[in-house]
Amino acid sequence: MNNFIFQNPTKLIFGKGQIARLSKELPKGSKILVTFGGGSVKKNGVYEQVTAALEGFDYQEFWGIEPNPKVETLRKAVEICKRDGVDFLLAVGGGSVLDGTKLIAAAAVVDTDAWELVCNPKLYGGTLPFASVMTLPATGSEMNRGAVISNLATGEKYAFYNTYPQFSILDPQTTFSLPPYQVACGLADTFVHVMEQYLTATDIAPLMDRWAEGVLQTIIEVAPKVRADQTDYDAMATYMLSATMGLNGFIAMGVPQDWATHMIGHEITALTALTHGHSLVVVLPAVMDVMREQKGDKILQYGQRVWGITEGSYDERIDKTIAATEEFFRSLGLQTRLSELNIGKEVAEQIVLRFKERGTLLGENSNIDYLTVEKILNQRL
Ligand code: NZQ
Ligand code: ZN
Fold it and tell me: Considering the domain boundaries, does residue 315 fall inside one?
């Protein structure tokens, strides 16, 4: 097991009617900026619940943080924070609203431009405190330090790290209004988060393996229920908690991590606007196949424990496991080939060129170079 330090300070407030607790959790006497996306919260009753709980607080609203939040939009909120002396941020919406808010919170306390902060972590100079009401289970952003920020002008998309939300409120009832496509992408994103932290080598941290396999099995079990009835509270609650547990550090103790699928997926999204979770299901089967020599033992363990695959030669079992994984993604209603999504070879070539120019090395052993990325993407055309 690798050395690690674990500390996750986010207070998780989960369940029916919990948005009302905002009035107890928000710091009294603070100047709050409440951040929103494009308006889904006005259609599903979340906005009313939030504003009711905010009665008596000094707050203003910032609207329009888009999916794959753009730095161009976030800069406007940074201006407001600086101008009006905002000292607490509350994100209400999906992962994009919260990710964007994490950058606003960091950029509000320094003179550095927000995009420079994304590109150069050394410029990080602290943060305003922030919290969330999360309405889309997928990113785990409600209980992690990460944010993924896009730049409209340059077509780039990079991860940025701030501190953790002080608290996050998750009421599964808020997810009843999600478009089914977002649910499919959220289930896929959760699944792949676990895989990125799990599918490396065997016998490193057996407890983490069992824990990760438990989250994967839960997602596989609950996905058909969620897709059949999005108002099934217990199913949506299970999905929502799985998403949080998938990327809050609890399955990452002492293990190596991969993240190649995400890094390649982010480039697909940056160039084509394909939804994040959907980009991952295109990439992961090929990462498993191309990296089978390195990951083979772990793929076998995953195949056996998660999919019950025990028959066949070493390579046959790997093939069956990859097929089961891809079949699961397709059962969510998601296409898994670039050609099915009308994404052509020129996009794959551009991604490979980007990795070549940046000299990026991906994967748990930092050995996935641009030539390997090319092999991975060529498999998915
Ligand atoms: O903008 P509104 O109107 O609110 O609509 C949103 C948006 O159009 C809608 N939505 C959210 N909750 C809803 C709802 N519609 C109806 N009912 C609800 N309850 O869903 C659409 C997508 O929302 P978005 O926030 O973009 O989705 P998601 O939560 O999947 O976030 C995706 C972003 O997170 C990044 C991705 O790269 C992408 O930019 N990631 C962040 C991570 C992190 N912070 O740790 C890790 C992930 O791997 C991921 O990269
Ligand atoms: Zn993700």
Answer: yes
In this structure, the strands spanning 11-14 and 31-36 are: unpaired
Judge if 127 and 224 occupy the same domain.
no
Residues having C-beta closer than 5 Å to ion ligand 2: 189
pLDDT at 290: 98
Which residues, in sequence order, are bridge partners of residue 167?
Answer: 11
Q: Distance (Å, rounded) from C-alpha 239 to C-alpha 197?
A: 19
Q: Is 77 in the pocket of ligand 1 (CB under 6 A)?
A: no
Q: Is the CB of 279 under 6 A from ligand 1?
A: no
pLDDT in tens, 148-158: 999 999 999 99
Residue 341 and residue 282 in contact, taking contact as beta carbons nearer than 8 Å: yes
Residue in 98, 136, 245 to alter for ligand 1 test, most ligand atoms within 8 A of Cβ: 136
Q: How far is the CA of 266 from the centre of ligand 2 (A)?
A: 9
Band of residue 46 on the pLDDT scale cut at 50, 70, 90: very high
- The pTM (predicted TM-score) of the whole model is 0.98
Quote the Cα angle for 162-165-171, to 5°.
140
Q: Which of 142, 324, 320, 317 is nearest to 220 (CA)?
A: 324
Q: Whole domain around residue 246: which residue ranges?
A: 179-379
44 DSSP assignment: S
Residue minimizing CA distance to atom 38 of ligand 1 = 68
C-alpha 236/C-alpha 54 separation (Å) is 26
As a whole number of angstroms, the distance between CA 201 and CA 187 comes to 24
Shared-domain flag, residues 229 and 359 = yes
Confirm or reject: Cβ of 247 under 6 Å from ligand 1. yes
Domain membership flag for residue 369: yes
Atom 18 (ligand 1) nearest CA: 178
